[in-house]
Automatic annotation (TrEMBL):
Gene Ontology MF terms: nucleotide binding
Domain GFO/IDH/MocA-like oxidoreductase: 132-266
Ranges where the Gfo/Idh/MocA-like oxidoreductase N-terminal domain occurs: 3-122
Protein name: Dehydrogenase
Signal peptide: none
Length: 344
């Protein structure tokens, strides 16, 4: 049995809690947030007893019986929390974006290594259903030799961040680097998972919404020795809106992926339909409806974390691995700011 201590009971924590409560050989034996109202609400909601609740992480690490610290707080808190957990000998699962810089990420990796504790970044996007199916198709060489890849994310989200709106994550308004820092870590991690490490990258980014500080649209051109890809990502496009938007401003992310090889083309439609088209033009349905089901992705991700603790196997998205994703994220900003091609 692995005893889990959670830090951060904000917006996304319910995905973690639900997954821990679903995974057989784990139990939540501590939960912490400096905001006690939020701490008690979330704990009540998920039947986490009062004796397990803490408003201070140092006290939690001193008093609670935990093996793992699950960090669900913003990136600026990660270094301090990783230091505390590692010093207490706890394994660590830390939310994305892992760090504000490569130097900070490297420091956390080193701290965990020196303390002899395991460190994984909570990178759930690659565990979403369509990407897991596509990975298996690529492993079976279903498209043959890769030629071109187009990954498209659409939402009409940030232009609706008017000051009167209550947002699930209000801090999005003020983030100086928004789309590719907050979401780009997911996309670039998923991209690496499916297509491997790039050899070139060039990016353009743009701020469309008057209600954000950071960029909310951008394109990244990604080169390999013998194939290439484009990421076309935007929170400020109406192109896939199928019906009038509701009053409340919530994310409504849609993703498409078109992977062209010499044998076939894989198509993930924004509806979730997944097909493969052969050289005769025959389109075969792989799945009528795949879902961006975040709860399911967390069950798989956290299950993988526990499997690796049990077996000693490498985490797919260890702190060390995540350095590669973060490098692509920061290089995206550098490329866009300086019109520079990044070479690897
Ligand atoms: N993987 C995903 O798909 C996904 C989705 C949403 C958010 N996230 C990430 O999860 C992290 C948290 O996001 P959120 O939207 O839940 O934020 P949030 O602001 O809603 O919640 C964060 C909570 O952490 C608490 N906190 C911060 N520092 C603390 C400390 N030192 N001790 C105790 N409590 C502390 C805050 O009081 C707050 O309640 C972010 O890094 C975000 O990018 C990931």
């Amino acid at each position: 049995m692995w005893n889990i201590g959670i830090v951060g009971t904000g917006y996304w924590s319910e995905k973690h809690i639900k997954a821990w409560q679903h995974i057989e050989d784990t139990t939540i034996t501590a939960i912490c947030d400096k905001n006690t109202a939020l701490l008690n609400d979330k704990s009540d909601q998920y039947n986490i007893r009062e004796a397990y609740r803490y408003s201070d992480v140092v006290t939690m690490l001193e008093q609670a019986d935990i093996d793992v610290m699950d960090i669900i707080t913003p990136p600026e808190t990660h270094l301090e929390l990783v230091k505390l957990a590692a010093a207490a000998g706890k394994h660590i699962m830390c939310q994305k974006p892992f760090a504000r810089s490569i130097a900070e990420a490297e420091e956390m990796v080193q701290i965990a290594e020196q303390a002899g504790v395991r460190l994984m970044v909570t990178e759930n996007w690659r565990w979403l259903e369509p990407f897991q199916i596509i990975k298996n198709l690529l492993l079976e060489h279903a498209v043959g030799k890769l030629n071109t890849i187009r990954y498209i994310h659409t939402d009409f989200y940030s232009p609706r961040f008017t000051p009167d709106q209550e947002l699930p994550q209000p801090f999005f308004r003020d983030m100086p680097q928004l789309l590719f820092y907050e979401m780009g870590v997911h996309w670039l991690d998923t991209w690496r998972f499916l297509f491997g490490e790039p050899t070139r990258l060039y990016a353009e980014t743009r701020k469309v919404s008057p209600y954000t500080v950071g960029e909310d649209s951008g394109m990244i051109l990604i080169g390999y020795e013998d194939y290439m890809g484009l990421m076309d990502m935007s929170w400020a496009t109406r192109r896939e809106l199928q019906e009038p938007l509701g009053e409340q401003v919530l994310p409504n992310h849609k993703e498409q992926l078109i992977i062209e090889g010499d044998k076939a083309t894989i198509k993930l439609y924004h509806t979730g339909r997944l097909t493969i088209i052969d050289n005769a033009g025959v389109e075969t349905v792989i799945a009528d409806q795949t879902e961006l089901n975040y709860e399911d992705s967390h069950r798989k991700l956290q299950g993988h974390f526990i499997d690796c603790l049990n077996t000693g196997a490498e985490f797919q998205t260890s702190g060390l691995d995540n350095l590669k994703t973060l490098r692509l994220v920061f290089d995206t900003y550098d490329s866009a700011a300086n019109h520079k091609v990044q070479l690897y």
